[in-house]
TrEMBL record:
Localization in the cell: Cytoplasm
Record-linked Gene3D superfamilies: Probable inorganic polyphosphate/atp-NAD kinase, domain 1, Probable inorganic polyphosphate/atp-NAD kinase, domain 2
Catalytic reaction(s) noted: NAD(+) + ATP = ADP + NADP(+) + H(+)
Active site as annotated: 43
Pfam families the UniProt entry points to: NAD_kinase (PF01513), NAD_kinase_C (PF20143)
Highest classification ranks of the organism: Bacteria, Pseudomonadati, Pseudomonadota, Alphaproteobacteria, Rhodobacterales
Signal peptide region: none
Protein's name according to its UniProt entry: NAD kinase
InterPro entries found in the cross-reference section: ATP-NAD_kinase_N (IPR017438), ATP-NAD_kinase_PpnK-typ_C (IPR017437), NAD/diacylglycerol_kinase_sf (IPR016064), NADK (IPR002504)
Length: 253
């Protein structure tokens, strides 16, 4: 019995060309009822696909037609069903972000990589950080801060000098962005079950925005972040090139 494969692609010309070639070779099944969804593009498109298909039980296999492709496999038109059959599965739980804004509105979003808080103006942000309701840092003066999953620990978190986390680690990375006070404070490792809360201090003078995988909310006053174990993203990787191996490799380059 042949695999039922659904294809999707970013708008980039190279991804659209790959889409035409693959669908000619393998056909194109509807995503509902597919055995696997193949996403063609870069990491940004892969994140979009995972968010869009989070209620679909079919795993997602990415092939790189973008730039970095950390979440993607090497592109080839040949032997795709065999690669899907042999692929390793990584299960990723997203973060859920809940914000309260200056106008009293509340917003909710999911993040597979990270939730980040960033200053909106020339003044440094001032943040109070609590973990599970207990204040852990009364005042962090910084350009921002973020909470990253293991899957997202090599993205913005790593650029901000945060730690790379093994994919199976039940921890989250709390990382400062350009911390000024406390001087060079880099952050903390927290249990995956922890809820991290940020309170924006002097918000009128020092406005802050929050982003969950590039979904931005402006003028936030409170941001609450926790892992969402009820949502599972199943991502496929070629054998020997799974997410665990990639996370290890990234620490030796």
């Amino acid at each position: 019995m042949s695999l039922k494969i659904a294809f999707c692609a970013s708008d980039a010309a190279i991804a659209q060309s790959a889409l035409r070639g693959l669908t000619r070779r393998y056909g194109d099944h509807a995503e509902q009822g597919a055995d696997a969804i193949v996403a063609l593009g870069g990491d940004g498109f892969m994140l979009q696909t995972l968010h869009r298909t989070q209620d679909n039980p079919a795993p997602v296999y990415g092939m790189n037609r973008g730039t970095v492709g950390f979440l993607m496999n090497e592109y080839s038109e040949h032997g795709l069903p065999e690669r899907l059959e042999a692929a390793e599965v990584a299960v990723i739980n997203p973060l859920v972000m809940r914000t309260v804004c200056g106008d009293g509105s509340e917003h909710r979003a999911l993040a597979i990589n990270e939730v980040s808080l960033l200053r909106m103006g020339p003044q440094a942000a001032k943040l109070r950080i609590s973990v599970d309701g207990k204040v852990r840092l009364a005042e962090l003066v910084c350009d921002g801060a973020l909470v990253a999953t293991p899957a997202g620990s090599t993205a913005y978190n790593y650029s901000a000098h945060g730690p790379i986390l093994p994919i199976g680690a039940d921890v989250l990375a709390l990382t400062a962005v350009a911390a000024f006070r406390p001087r060079r404070w880099r952050g903390a490792l927290l249990p995956k079950s922890a809820e991290v809360s940020f309170e924006v201090l002097e918000a009128e003078k020092r406005p802050v925005m929050a982003e969950a995988d590039s979904r931005a909310v402006r003028d936030v006053r409170q941001v609450h972040i926790r892992s969402e174990p009820r949502i599972e993203h199943r991502v496929l990787f070629d054998p020997g090139h799974g997410l665990e191996e990639r996370l290890i490799q990234e620490q030796f380059v």
